[in-house]
Amino acid sequence: LLDEATSALDNESEKLVQAALDGLLSSRTSSILGLTLGTKKRTTIVIAHRLTTVRGADKIVVLGSADAAGGMAGGGSADGSVVLEQGTHDVLMAKPNGRYKALVGLGGGGSKNASSANVSKLGEGKATASSVDLQQLAKAAAGVTDDPDEPKKDGKKDDKTQKPQKVNSKRIWAYSKPEYRLLIFGGVVALANGCIFPSIAFVFAEMLSLFYSMDTEYIMAGAVTFGLIFMGIAAASWIFAGVQGGVFAVVGERLTTRLRVHLFRSILRQDTSFFDDPQNSVGALTSNLRTDTSLVRAATGQSLGSAVQTFGSLCFGLSIAMEASWKYGLVLLAAVPILSVGEMINMENLASGDSIVSDSMGASAAHVGETAQMIREVKAFGLEKTMFTAYDALLSKPKKEERNKALRGAAAFGLAQCMTMLFYAFAFWWGAELISQGELDFYDFMKALWALGFCAAGAGQAAAFAGDAASAQTAASRIFDLIDRVPPIDAKPFLDLKPGLVDKGMEVRKVPQSNSDASAQGQGNIIENFTGKVDFVDVMFSYPQRPESAVLNLLSLTVEPGQTVALIGQSGSGKSTAVQLVERFYDPVSPEELKESIAVAKAEKAAKLTTAAKGKKETGKVAPASKTTDGKTNELASVTVVASEKPASSGAVLFDGVDIKLLDPLWLRSKIGLVEQEPTLFSGSVHANIASGKGGVGSATRAEVMEAAKVANAHEFISLMDGGYDAEVGVGGGLVSGGQKQRIAIARAIIGNPEVLLLDEATSALDNESEKLVQAALDGLLSSRTSSILGLTLGTKKRTTIVIAHRLTTVRGADKIVVLGSADAAGGMAGGGSADGSVVLEQGTHDVLMAKPNGRYKALVGLGGGGSKNASSANVSKLGEGKATASSVDLQQLAKAAAGVTDDPDEPKKDGKKDDKTQKPQKVNSKRIWAYSKPEYRLLIFGGVVALANGCIFPSIAFVFAEMLSLFYSMDTEYIMAGAVTFGLIFMGIAAASWIFAGVQGGVFAVVGERLTTRLRVHLFRSILRQDTSFFDDPQNSVGALTSNLRTDTSLVRAATGQSLGSAVQTFGSLCFGLSIAMEASWKYGLVLLAAVPILSVGEMINMENLASGDSIVSDSMGASAAHVGETAQMIREVKAFGLEKTMFTAYDALLSKPKKEERNKALRGAAAFGLAQCMTMLFYAFAFWWGAELISQGELDFYDFMKALWALGFCAAGAGQAAAFAGDAASAQTAASRIFDLIDRVPPIDAKPFLDLKPGLVDKGMEVRKVPQSNSDASAQGQGNIIENFTGKVDFVDVMFSYPQRPESAVLNLLSLTVEPGQTVALIGQSGSGKSTAVQLVERFYDPVSPEELKESIAVAKAEKAAKLTTAAKGKKETGKVAPASKTTDGKTNELASVTVVASEKPASSGAVLFDGVDIKLLDPLWLRSKIGLVEQEPTLFSGSVHANIASGKGGVGSATRAEVMEAAKVANAHEFISLMDGGYDAEVGVGGGLVSGGQKQRIAIARAIIGNPEVLLLDEATS
């Protein structure tokens, strides 16, 4: 399957690759790949806009709408595409007024009577694959460097690796400056709330004094009085806790929103090199904006309130103790630091541990993002195992770090508990000492002890937030590192504001219109009367990730005002690099920087070689050192920088003679219009995308948008889309075809009427008809900037234009043609860049260059078939001097071109299929989660026993406390002191046991939790890999959302299953042992209090329910903003080029409004529930005292048993309180687990099932990957479909109907019937949007055909939704801009949803089928099916990794590839030479998405990847375009 497989290749490479492909197609017996599979030909489906590449096909099929206007090959209409014509080139050319014949005439592909006898027939070329590949291809790329023509990622690492900064808390709180008054009020309430518990000391001391009395009536009266006081304290606690929680929730939510806003502004400020760094992947940035800011919120909202509350508790408690006895209070105050030792260690461990774990998780998050973005390649080549293995390996480091962090934390927590016990031991001993000396009485001792006890309880509550504070500090470091980063190229799109003023309006820096404005802003100058002159003066450049390899070497070039200059040269020769330097995405480098980079790279390479020699095992055959054309080894030193030959400066790009480094970047980019080779669109409407071209200079009206679309030959197909200019284009422009996308991008570039126009392969994805019309329109635009099209009257001067094109026919009329390449290029051809970088080889007009004997340009024209050696530009339409003006071409002719073209995509990348109805997440049974810990069941049992023992620690103190209190009834001071020493030692023993038990418990459950989380991540990633392409098309399943699932959600589950389980078991032990003590002391007292225990749980139940529902709502709300951040990062070049920082920021700010509101509501509900829980605790204590007094007064309970039972139940309550601290974890975990298992349980409609079903706990028992079945018996055993054992390669489309899931009401294919015989090469042609790439995706079974019934239902649903929207809009929606009129079809009728008429009598009941050898592919095993297909897409992408790994991935589903096979496949694809010249050769990294190689190099690697598996069916979608 070849979908425009050569679209990005220059003429020379295309010709050679095409010859190689011809050889491959002619026979599958090939020495190239060592294959002997018989002499049968390979079945091939080719898509190409250049008709010269498909004229020799066995069959040519023209797709389009039967009612296409003008006799041209129409695109798909609302009724979908059908087969208009089919046959050989000769047969179709013989048809009078034929569609194909008309297309050939438009494309200049030959005369009306041209015969295929005059062209090399595909599959029957004289040269065999081997002879072409091994003898001729070596010459083609000689001297081509690995330096990219247009890298999208260069991984610039301008920030040295360093420890994150320590963030001052004042800086964080500056974001809450507008809430300072509210903070003061909240602080007062929190202080009052903090006084609640210490005030109980008075009540407790008074109540204990009651029991000295023998008067039962006095005891009961006092118990009632103090019980009522307790109830009053309970009510106050509820009010104070609720108000405190609400205030600090609002403050925390607003602070977090401002922090997110400020952070996103800083992200938008960064230059392109920042986004090129893999460390700043989409996943990492999404994590920063979502996870890190949430961590800061957790520690600044409720945590601040708790800290103030604790401070109040400590101050009031110490005051009470000091008032009771200054000597007692002062000494204990001096001993307080003992309590903090463990917590200090714990906080330090948490802070460092979080930082390490976060860094380790970054790589795995980036891998998940790349997998989701390249899911089609993963499916097509059966790479599920490869991607899974890589993810599993990346998890190993964070897995280890999480375990180590948990173990250290457990030990530190045990130490903190031990210190608390030692403090109590000392407090009792010192109290006994003072009583024995007569300096303290029992009442004051009780008062001081209880006050300090509640102080300790407050400190314990604060300690529960220590982890939050530590994590927040780490997160804040990451946030402010990014906020503080000043990029090397700083456009500074936002004004500097104080943090708290972030929400005071959109403080965007406007593009200066005069030098006075520019001077005031201080970001650079402007040129007030800019003429459009552009100069390159001695420019040297290398990309930051390959700094040792020069792309441009002393490039000097002048583009005069109004000139059209064409840059040509081989892929990798620096053409697109020059364009990016004009946009100032990067700056030139100096020879000194290049020297330093070479030295560093050499040192790093030497270090790697030394390490490898010492101990690295060889995992495969190592490629020999790559050679240059002269036979020498290509070392890093190949870049020779000689000071005497090169200037000391880095060279410069000048605008009107001014170095652009001195100009304001915002102004600079506002003067430039850019169309990139692989343009991308933003999620949103067509109108919004075109209008974004004026992003930096103003807003566009609907009229301007429509006129720009007409110029770009886009108006007609847009009008036919459902919704017209308001129709959605999808994520990245995925709901429109490649050609439609490019036309919208052209309209976007020209709407701002820029002085300088940069066209980087601007028409490469257009069909011949559209290209010719768009080219004529562009000619008109270039000839004069006085244009009626856009209502502009800016004078008669011409527009300065730099054009890059591989099709030389499109640039022959340029004022100047510049050939870039290496001066030492072999064979006299125009060479690409070498290791020394590209220079200007030739420049001049077409006529001048054609007159040069043996000229580089002349040779290229000969290769491209662009004309004879003596061809003159007088014979072609000169750019800028075409007879037709822009307006006449656009308004009079363009309407004919796209008539009948539907909005349905030719090759959509996203269709947003929503096969899962919106529903409440499932309730996950905890047994299912714990099944992942089955291998650790023995360890869990051991941990459970230790946790039970640990749970008994606190209730056992009841015995000690009761005995110690009994001591003070004695008048014998020696007896008191002896008892105090004894019980103090017992306390110390309990403290040591607590440390040991807490440490062991924490360690065991940490290990269990870490292993459970790893298995859950593994299982979840396997499930993601199982999903079909429609799943990834849904915006809800964006990269950010999937990364969040695998990182955040699994971490939430871990938090509630590791330590939380241990705490639950510990609490259970505390309750059981405490109740046992109470029951032993007095069954009547214990039993009644046990019945009252449910009162304690009411508040917590409400709290947990609120947390669970709140987390779910907030998470859903944050999904859209995370997706927006991801899209912004992926399209940062478009954002920078069109000055869209304000637009992206405004959209993000709007998306934040919903989660902001939900977070606030969640916090307010939580505060009220927390206050209720605290109130219930107080009421329980009030009842406990009253009931104890009642039993004592009745003589059924003595003071000692009362004390023992009360303390036992008190420590039970303390244990329950600790467990309640994990209630939020449990609630969040339940919500997270619901999301996780919803995805794990999802069975995709097209289920390749690449992994075997395993029990959850066995996930880590090896790579259980399902193998591709090789026989029907294997297939039957696996049960995923049949295979065809003697597959011949026949492909049939039988009455196929299809519409994409996000536009189900619009048919793309309508009863398509087509047969591809075994071994045939069939070419699909037609306008953009006519369904060519759709047919390819149906063969790959990325989607299945739809039935007429499904289409009818979709139309009805869409109509109802549209009607509902219109009703809602009519009722109350304010008009924010001019509404476009209803789009019209070519016959003038309004384009309603009903335009698709499905008549049962005319269409079959079934949805049609795609057949392999007569078998419906729905019945075949998808893994086997895809293993028989090779695919090259129109816009191929590569995986992060080496060249070898990328080419070898073409055998992903059927086996591993040797280095020899990889090299031979590269030779076939004309890639071997440029790969050999890369530093590292086949082991060189290609970067994220293939960003370190040029578009042409990327496409050649993709072709090698497609053919290495020797597939029976080859799909080429514009493989050489």
Please characterize this protein's 3D structure.
The strands form seven sheets. This protein has a six-stranded mixed sheet, with helices on both faces. A four-stranded mixed sheet has the order 4-21-5-6. A four-stranded antiparallel sheet has the order 8-7-10-11, with helices on one face. By secondary structure, the protein is an alpha/beta fold. Helix 7 (216-269) runs antiparallel to helix 10. The two termini are 15 Å apart. The chain is built from 49 helices and 25 strands. The relative contact order is 0.15.
Mean pLDDT: 73
Q: Please outline the major beta sheet.
A: 6 strands, mixed
Estimated share of beta-strand residues: 5-15%
**Could you tell me the radius of gyration in angstroms?**
37 Å
Strand elements, count: 25
Characterize the overall form.
elongated
Question: How many angstroms separate the termini?
Answer: 15 Å
Helix content: 40-55%
Unreliable runs, pLDDT <50, ≥5 residues?
28-39, 68-77, 107-162, 615-648, 785-796, 825-835, 864-918, 1372-1405
Q: If helices are DSSP runs of H or I spanning 4 or more residues, what is the number of helices?
A: 49
Strand order in the sheet with the most strands: 12-13-16-9-17-18
Structural category: alpha/beta
